[in-house]
Design a protein that fits this description.
The protein has 251 residues and is an alpha/beta fold. Helix content is 36%, strand content 27%. The protein contains seven helices and ten strands. Strand 4 and strand 5 form a beta hairpin. Helix 2 packs parallel to helix 4, helix 4 packs parallel to helix 5 and helix 6 packs across helix 7. The chain is globular. The mean pLDDT is 90.
């Protein structure tokens, strides 16, 4: 479980202070997914950076399973928008990179790598380099690296936004297959309402002004078979879209 209590972040620039957001309070259960959705400037990426330990100068507290957040003590996976692959390393080396950085002495489980690559549909690409892959294949490699790491917390910053609609849906499906197997606590930032409903057990809507949590929705249809074809899926997407139109307009 991750607990965020009274989280506030302030940026300092040219002797001026810029409050990104104040008093963010959120609890996310172990083995669940949470989708953050909000307009530009609402602090979505800043929240992820605080959860990743990249931003350490904040007020409030963040704890994972009652232990204060510490990237050196806990295992945190991070999937950025640009996939974060090293161009001079091949697919296999990129997948193993996170584990090697976390613990240089650990022995790579080759069977686990093989299984994850198979589930993500990239088996046979081990010796290729990132510039030889499509965007969708690069994203699958990035996912493989994070799942091999077996993180206590998996952070995803609009990871599918650069992909076309069909490829995005395919990789969302691939992500869920592996997520159901490993069940890492996952926080996902997205601009897409449909993606938030499809991938988020908990959906958190942020506002721009004031920068705060406007609404938290416990998704009642997460994991439903053929969810994208269900009436309830369209109804929930419509409800969320209507809420954010009104909320973001009046902010």
């Amino acid at each position: 479980m991750i607990e965020i209590k009274d989280l506030s972040v302030t940026y300092h620039s040219n002797k001026e202070f810029y409050k990104v957001f104040t008093d963010i309070n959120l609890t996310i259960p172990t083995g669940s997914t949470c989708a953050l959705i909000g307009p530009s400037g609402s602090g979505k990426s800043t929240i992820l950076k605080a959860l990743a330990g990249i931003i350490t100068d904040f007020e409030g507290s963040i704890a994972i399973n009652d232990v204060p957040l510490s990237p050196t003590m806990q295992t945190i996976g991070f999937i950025p928008q640009n996939y974060g692959l090293l161009p001079w390393k091949n697919v296999y080396e990129n997948i193993c990179l996170g584990v090697k950085i976390k613990n240089k002495k650990v022995k790579i489980d080759k069977n686990a790598v093989k299984s994850i690559m198979h589930n993500l549909g990239i088996a046979g690409l081990e010796h290729r380099y990132p510039n030889e892959l499509s965007g969708g294949q690069q994203q699958r490699v990035s996912l493989a690296r994070s799942f091999l790491l077996k993180p206590d917390l998996l952070l995803m910053d609009e990871p599918f936004s650069a992909l076309d609609a069909i490829t995005r849906e395919e990789i969302q499906d691939a992500f869920l297959i592996l997520w159901k197997r490993y069940s890492p606590l996952t926080v996902l930032v997205t601009h897409y309402v449909e993606e938030a409903v499809y991938l988020g057990q908990k959906i958190v809507i942020l506002s721009t002004n004031p920068r705060r949590i406007s609404k938290v929705i416990d998704n009642p249809i997460f994991g439903v078979k053929n969810i994208r074809k269900q009436k309830e899926f369209f109804e929930l997407c419509s409800t969320i879209r209507n809420f954010i139109k009104e909320d973001w307009t009046t902010c």
